Description:
By secondary structure, the protein is of the alpha/beta class. Helices cover 48% and strands 22% of the residues. The strands form three sheets. Strands 8, 9, 10, 11, 12, 13, 14, 15, 16 and 17 form a ten-stranded mixed beta sheet that branches.
Amino acid sequence: MKQAMVASSRSGSYCALLFIDLDNFKTLNDTQGHEIGDLLLKLVAQRLTQCVREGDTVARLGGDEFLVVLAGLGASKEDAAKDIETITDKIPAALNQSYQFGNAPFHCTASIGVTLFKGDLASIDDLMKQADIAMYKAKEAGRNSVRFYDPTLEAAVQERVALEADLRLAIAENQFLVYYQAQVDAGDHCMGAEALIRWQHPQRGMVSPADFIPLAEETGLILPLGHWVLRTVCGQLAAWATRPELAHLAVAVNISAHQFHQADFVDQVLAVLKNTGANPLRLKLELTESLLVANVEDVIFKMRMLKSVGVGFSLDDFGTGYSSLAYLSRLPLDQLKIDRSFVMNIETDDSAVVICAATISLAHNLKLMVVAEGVETEAQRYFLTAVHHCDLIQGYLTSRPLPVAAFEAFVQTL
């Protein structure tokens, strides 16, 4: 690396550091033994050295991690990137060819992170760190891929680590709120709401769900978070049951695939209903189509168990993912939600018009209610409710998501 830096300072050409990590190497070690693992590392080393040019350096850092130093690349970033691309095309092609161990062929892929450097503007430690970050981005992209380091990547990694730490603390300190977005019928009566989580961070302010829900899903923190929302909503339903002007409200709670696929999910919901005293007829669990991909029979079984005590089910974002009419005929649903991406294009896109109209007709023929979300204009409302008899609309036209007190006040104005 030092030699490459010195040579780069003199010539003004770029160099590159490649961090190569074998995908699923541990599986081979665990199933075939360390002797086979060692043999694979030797074969990988041979193939790597055949992919680079004379004057380049290939090294094994340790375990299943290799480094490649490419010297004397182009003088511009664009030219250097082209030179690197030639080699990063060769390496996966070479490594992906099968390895023969006894009678069984073995396939090995690699995730590759690349960082460019010129002269000694960055330290060797920094370059190693940059290439490592890029390699992990390659793994996140599905493995067997190449990613280039970008300074924004490092900032994003650091921000993600900080956000995860804050999220864990927020769950412990109960920094979350539930907002309610009204669902209104054709006569402007509020029939219920969708519960939406909000994070009131002491320093960051209100953190968007788009920023922390994906992180919660990745880290498993969606489980305690989702359970907290369910408890909070059921407690609110029990409180509204004592107030005649609010007792009719039903609330939809979003349930993630991680939550639903827990073995004891049904027991969790039943325990929350019992402990809060909420009427199960007022609770609607909102599922996404992606949840149906894995083990449909288990999904149906759990839904029927909860339906037997009165809990309702809504299928969210209908038409955007794994739509299947077979699911609709088998799942014990009560409601379909038309995704906002269709609603927002009603006034400009004939296809969106057809999809919305067909969805409402299909749902009604299956004895399902329909909620259209993302309704923002009077024209959208007229098309959905007056022309096609959509049961409920939800969106900024009627109400933004509101904290509980403001939502209660809104309901009583209708």
